[in-house]
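agent> Task received from the user: take the single chain below, predict its 3D structure, and emit structure tokens. No templates, no multimer pairing.
agent> Plan: (1) validate residues, (2) run structure prediction, (3) serialize to tokens, (4) report one or two observations.
agent> Step 1 OK, no nonstandard residues flagged.
tool_call: predict_structure(input=
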Amino acid sequence: MKLEDRDHYFLGYVGSHERAALMYEKMSESSAEEAQKWFVANWVSCDSFYHVVDDIRDLLVDFNFSAERLVFEEDREWWDALPNTLHVYRGCEEGRDNGLSWTLDRSVAETFAQGHRGLRLSKPRIYEKTVYKTSVYFATNERAEQEIIV
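)
tool_result: status=success, residues=150
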């Protein structure tokens, strides 16, 4: 997918805190192909999606999301160069280690653990785990965050 192809699916008319719930609604009403477009177009601009994380994860599984198929053309070289086993980090509020968004860069996780886009965390924590590249639903380096969705 090309970055410019996602314009039709971008939910820019709602705030970043409401976007995840609306994205989920659009995805759940769509075919697998359309759901993938809704997700890819909006994911990096969603904040405060924890209330729908399990619902979104269910759709990612049901619709057979795969980073191998969904990575942006602009990220293809980066993605292809990654090893088959990935060590990923997640900076978040303590207890939210079941989130979807992880990074390959510990310093990015450290930044998110302190909060981002005006959100401050009361109990920051950095989680880490190892995952197989084949288990990644989506990946992007669009904002130089090496974001991995697992």
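agent> Step 4: summary for the user.
The helical segments are 16-28, 32-42, 53-62, 67-70, 76-81, 106-113.
agent> Done.
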